[in-house]
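PROTEIN DESIGN WORKSHEET
SECTION A - STRUCTURE
LENGTH: 497
TOKENS:
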């Protein structure tokens, strides 16, 4: 195929190659409609080839001392630092988030590389006293094997770093299926792995759809763990099938996150956090604030401040430093968001601003949706419970903190929660009673740091965590070791009874 734009090929066993079918799909800039490149379309055959390479490589990779594996991650971190601006601009061009956010996302991958590189010198186990004399007891970590990683488009390098780097430093090898909307970032990231000198087969990249490549990964008998970030519906299907096959599964899925604003809060500070949480990344974050639970006594004041700030937000191409909100990722996402406008109005919500697609002037060829605010939303409305994944915020008035916590916890998801209050008692009550994996006090629902666990409860996840030391537990098996040097038979609890 001859084209003036880049071709994004699979990377299998250290070689860049197209899929056997010879088909390519277009990668498009969501801000302008411009063609960015063409992506090879893979089948189960490429998955099988990549898994075979990963399985073969894992035999020797797991025997590389963990501190040496960590040194590779330091090299990866340095290369990410050197290419930060290029990676950020690539990210914005194919996904749409504004350039400052893109730079922040690349920084997250840099941070993860150095953090996990350091874990190569720890990979902490336990040494504990035995209950019997002349006996040593300890536990250690061993790799799971071949890790199948399925990552989303909204954080195409940050989430990929959350999964690839702990997997690699733990001694696993990787088969990675990136999202179809962000192939260029996947190419750039794997080029860095290659340049860092990772042995062939340690990281393998396979482009393709979830229905073909993703399903083949779940079904493949030589993939030992699936780590997936995406929708709860897809995650549920993966969990069910992988469970039948006795695979380990780590899921990070949807969210319907809320910020609570109490009547003793600093309202200006709260509005700063609400704007950033609701409209940052055009609302396309699993941690985005889509529900605003407000004490009735400050509802009017919050609405007034929000409307003023929302009307100042600028839509446009995220590469423009003056733009506040970029496009949504594709036309399907745009129509999905737009469909909820009639749902909200039919249910009785009051639209204060936004609520429609815009194609004005320079926005004509992109996928833009006006930042939207609904008020007088009640907890039985669909927009109060269903994940919209766009720049849409629903204001729900409440009478007190107990009602606010009840509303917060009433949804199927449990990823991120936040509260604005200057009352210490309310702070600690919320900290313990908000049912979510992340809780923020006097900050918005976004802003997780890589050295703490990331993930949620209920339909958001299945108990595992990305990021932090907890990520190592996803990609490691625990082994307990007992060394008896008593030179006689000791029968543990029987002899210690």
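SECTION B - SEQUENCE
RESIDUE ASSIGNMENT:
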């Amino acid at each position: 195929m001859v084209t003036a734009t880049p071709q994004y090929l699979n990377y299998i066993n250290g070689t860049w190659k197209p899929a056997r079918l010879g088909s390519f799909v277009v990668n498009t800039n969501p801000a302008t409609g411009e063609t960015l490149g063409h992506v090879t379309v893979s089948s189960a055959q490429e998955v099988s080839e990549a898994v075979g390479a990963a399985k073969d490589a894992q035999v020797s990779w797991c025997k590389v001392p963990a501190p040496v594996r960590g040194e590779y991650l330091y090299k990866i971190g340095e290369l990410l630092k050197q290419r930060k601006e290029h990676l950020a601009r690539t990210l914005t061009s194919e996904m749409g988030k504004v350039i400052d956010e893109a730079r922040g996302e690349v920084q997250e991958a840099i941070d993860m590389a150095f953090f996990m590189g350091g874990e190569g010198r720890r990979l902490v186990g336990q040494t504990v006293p035995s209950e019997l004399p002349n006996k040593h007891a300890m536990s250690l970590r061993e790799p799971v094997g071949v890790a199948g990683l399925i990552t989303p488009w909204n954080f195409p390098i940050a989430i990929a770093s959350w999964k690839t780097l702990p997997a690699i430093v733990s001694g696993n090898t990787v088969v990675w299926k990136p999202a179809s909307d962000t192939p260029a970032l996947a190419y750039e990231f794997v080029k860095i792995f290659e340049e860092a000198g990772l042995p062939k087969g340690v990281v393998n990249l396979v482009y393709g759809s979830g229905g073909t490549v993703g399903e083949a990964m779940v079904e493949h008998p030589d993939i030992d763990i699936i780590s997936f970030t995406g929708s709860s519906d897809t995650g549920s299907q993966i969990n069910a099938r992988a469970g039948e096959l006795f695979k380990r599964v780590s899921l990070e899925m949807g969210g319907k996150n809320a910020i609570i604003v109490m009547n003793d809060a600093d309202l200006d500070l709260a509005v700063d956090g609400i704007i950033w949480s609701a409209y940052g990344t055009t609302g396309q974050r699993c941690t985005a604030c889509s529900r605003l639970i407000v004490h009735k006594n400050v509802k009017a004041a919050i609405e007034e401040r929000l409307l003023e700030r929302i009307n100042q937000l600028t839509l446009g191409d995220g590469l423009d430093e003056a733009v506040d909100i970029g496009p949504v990722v594709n036309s399907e996402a745009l129509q999905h968001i737009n469909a909820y406008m009639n749902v909200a109005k039919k249910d009785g919500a009051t639209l204060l601003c936004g609520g429609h697609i815009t194609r004005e002037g320079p926005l004509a060829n992109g996928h833009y949706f006006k930042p939207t605010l609904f008020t007088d939303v009640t907890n039985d409305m669909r927009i109060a419970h269903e994940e919209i994944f766009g720049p849409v915020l629903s204001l729900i008035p409440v009478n007190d903190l107990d009602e606010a916590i009840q509303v917060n916890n009433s949804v199927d998801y449990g990823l991120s929660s936040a509260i604005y209050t200057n009352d210490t008692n309310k702070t600690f009550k919320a900290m313990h009673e908000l049912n979510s994996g992340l809780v923020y006090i006097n900050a918005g629902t976004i802003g997780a740091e890589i050295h703490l666990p990331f993930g949620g409860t209920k339909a958001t996840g299945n108990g595992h965590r990305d990021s932090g030391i907890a990520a190592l537990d996803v990609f490691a098996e625990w082994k307990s070791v007992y060394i008896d040097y008593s030179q006689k038979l000791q029968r543990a609890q029987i002899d210690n009874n």
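SECTION C - NOTES
The mean pLDDT is 97.
The longest helix spans residues 99-119.
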